[in-house]
């Protein structure tokens, strides 16, 4: 018999991760669904980006929408040589030469598993200042107050040769870093959190994983939320020419003064029936509706097209069992 959790966590740390060739491999679907469920209950998930010194963007749970992903920095405020990098990484926090005790002896330890709990603690302090903050608002405030990094700091020469080239090609435009926003600044983040909700559009979705099958005519309804204090103009970024949403853009009202997000609904559909399963990405971008030319926020939902009814039904049953 399951016991009731009488003291559910407001902020959850996940100092672990796993990867795979693509997001159709189990247990990716269930993991994304669990993250969505946790966020809908008002909790915040913070995760480590990983320690392979490589791309973090297919490593769960850190790379998933709905999660604040944390890389490791060193005493020089550079990326640690082992820290994974990528556009799904939000901020960095100290993770190199962290002092700890092992069998009563003082030891020096490394890992993004130390960086993530530090940001989890900062997020907890932020929620303490403003209990109604959502994960999306906390993520924005952490990134907005982070200390920026140069490309040489984010992609340091201590990375392996291939990783260094990948990091610079993927994460740098000239000397501007387009991946993580920088090294977290606890004092600034907590102070800004005390001011309340950000005055701009910030979007989220109810489902980070959508399964389209014959059972649902390759269609699904998706709820889009706006956690910001400005009305949002939302559009789909063109990734897959067969993946569409109706309407193709919409305006979503701002969050209320007591923190209830503005809501909008779209229908997501695939316009052809493939012979085999397909995994695609639905990327939504948002601007303030009064400044529609500048799209400053985005959210991703993984879409799996499963033409075989039984396969889709069996997978849905499996996911429901995982969530129980």
Commentary on this structure:
- The chain is 25% helix and 30% strand.
- The mean pLDDT is 91.
- Helix 2 runs parallel beside helix 6 and helix 3 (135-145) packs across helix 6.
- It is built from seven helices and 19 strands.
- With 324 residues, it is α+β, with helices and mostly antiparallel strands.
Summarize the structure.
Helices cover 25% and strands 30% of the residues. It has 324 residues and is α+β, with helices and mostly antiparallel strands.
Helical run tally: 7
Give the class from helix and strand content and strand pairing: alpha+beta
- CA radius of gyration is 20 Å
β-strand percent reads 25-35%
Can you give the mean pLDDT?
91
The main pleated sheet reads as: 5 strands, mixed
- Major beta sheet, strand line-up: 12-19-18-14-16
Strand segment count: 19
Summarize the amount of helix as a percent range: 10-25%
General form: globular
Distance between the termini: 12 Å
Q: Would you identify the regions where 5 or more consecutive residues have pLDDT less than 50?
A: none
String of helices and strands: EEHEEEEEEHHHHEEHEEEEEEEEEH
Observed structural traits:
four-stranded parallel sheet, 19 strands, alpha+beta, about 325 residues, five-stranded mixed sheet, single chain
